[in-house]
Amino acid sequence: MKPLYIISHVACSRPGYLCDYLDKRDIPYTRISMESGDTLPSPDTLSGLVLLGAPISVNSDQPWIEQEIALVHDCVENEIPVFGICFGGQLISKAFGGKVFPSSVMQIGWHPVSITEQRHLLFNGAELPDVFDAFEWHEESFSLPTGAMPLFSGDQPGNQGFLYKSCLAVQFHPEVTGEIIEEWVARYEACVEKPLEGIQDHREMLQDVDNKLAAMRQMTDHLFDWWIAQTRAIG
User: Fold this and answer.
1) pTM to 2 decimals?
2) What is the pLDDT of residues 18-65, one digit of tens each?
3) Which CATH class is domain 4-234?
4) What angle in degrees, to the nearest 10, is found between the helix axes of 87-95 and 63-77?
5) DSSP secondary structure letters along 96-130
């Protein structure tokens, strides 16, 4: 099987639990960093592509953003699965005609996310709650590209994830670990020093974090299972 490629954009945005999941299943992957100036892969060298988060907008003028959009298009043309998380999901939306814009409420912390009526596309037969608490950290949202199937929704913002051709995009962070959350809270202390609508107090965010992560991963593992099955189909 060709390796998955996992693209990080800054050092603090790590694949975390996704790597734990892949390692336990002996699934090969290669990590590259745009911050470090790594070269993007060619579609014929990979079985799937993962795009992680970033503390910037996909509408900014970083040259590598257009390069990643071009890579996503090449992957879709070759039916290679792409998985976008937060910034990565927003990039997929923009790549196929969706809009990325400031959310009405910045979300940081644990927030309820609903699985839509299209749940059968990913979770057919799985016993999952209709609503789960997901970890969020974003100030922008996205619209759905024409033809995309909504998978997850929330109150603020409404769109939390979709399927489009060979792309899976989510706004929340299924990859986080307790260590990653602690690092983000420390690094971006100014964002969480005062609780606001949509922004949890950092103590509330970290309280009982292991159980919160375990509950989210009941859904996350099914999500990863489905996506990895798509990569194996072409790998």
Assistant:
1) 0.95
2) 999 999 999 999 999 999 999 999 999 999 999 999 999 999 999 999
3) alpha beta
4) 70
5) TT--EEEEEEEEEEEEEEEE-GGGHHHHTT----S
Neighbours of 186 (CB within 10 A): 11
- How much is the pLDDT for 158? 83
Burial of 149 (0-12, 13-18, 19+ CB in 10 A): middle
Segment (H or E) for 83: strand 82-85
pLDDT confidence bin for 138, thresholds 50/70/90: very high
Residue found under tokens 């009941």: 218
Distance CA 43, CA 33 (A): 17
> Which two tokens mark 222?
């099914």
Q: HSE of 72 in the Cβ direction (CA atoms, 13 Å)?
A: 28
CB-CB neighbours of 94 under 10 Å: 20
| Distance (Å, whole) CA 134 – CA 128 | 14
Phi, psi of 138, deg, nearest 5? -160, 155
| Phi and psi angles of residue 199, each rounded to the nearest 5 degrees, phi first | -115, 115
pLDDT at 234: 60
* Best CA proximity match to 49, nearest among 32, 25, 66: 32
Rounded distance between C-alpha atoms, residue 141 and residue 27, angstroms: 31
Consecutive H or E run containing 65? helix 63-77
